[in-house]
Design goal:
Blueprint lengths: L2 H4 L10 H4 L10 H4 L4 E5 L3 E5 L9 E5 L11 H22 L3 E5 L9 E7 L27 H13 L2
Antiparallel strand pairs: 1-2, 2-3, 3-5, 4-5
Helix pairs in contact: 4-5
């Protein structure tokens, strides 16, 4: 069964009922075990994709593993590949909707040791470019960009997954 055929689009809801259940290995004080982490725009049995509310970086998303694991290599190979397929589908969707100059992908986990990926669209004139978004800003004023509806992003993710 393909990732896209098992997936459920979640538009505007914080979390589905399934996601509210304590998942395998959930940690009580883990921010990503206890909350959605943003507006859920797509999810399947392995992970969810959330939009991050950041006016400076429209299209900023996180791909969050449902169950609590600290490192990518803690995942079985098949699930690791499925998670990366979702990440790349989100990148495809964000690139088509926002046309950024660059996409930054980051999996840090230093502050929140739960497998998740940050996908951040970048523009040459954004506040931090060429530095990471967590660095000191390079400029004060940035052009405002339009924000895409979560439904549109979810639809594009589904379309990108169907092409894999």
């Amino acid at each position: 069964m393909s990732l896209s055929s098992r997936s459920t689009a979640r538009f505007g809801a914080e979390r589905s009922t399934r996601s509210l259940d304590v998942s395998e290995g959930a940690i009580d004080d883990c921010e990503l075990c206890g909350s959605a982490g943003g507006e859920v725009v797509w999810e399947n049995g392995i992970c969810r994709v959330v939009m991050v509310a950041d006016a400076d970086y429209p299209g900023f998303c996180r791909v969050i593993l449902h169950r609590h694991l600290r490192e990518m290599t803690d995942l079985p190979h098949k699930e690791r590949m499925q998670l990366m397929t979702v990440l790349f589908a989100v990148e495809t969707a964000v690139r088509s909707l926002y046309q950024p100059d660059k996409i930054n992908l980051a999996s840090l986990g230093n502050m929140t040791p739960h497998v998740h990926w940050h996908l951040i669209p970048r523009w040459r004139d954004d506040r931090h470019f060429p530095q990471p978004v967590w660095a000191r800003p390079q400029r004060v004023h940035v052009p405002r960009r339009s924000v895409v509806d979560g439904r549109q992003l979810g639809d594009r993710i589904i379309a990108a997954l169907q092409c894999t």
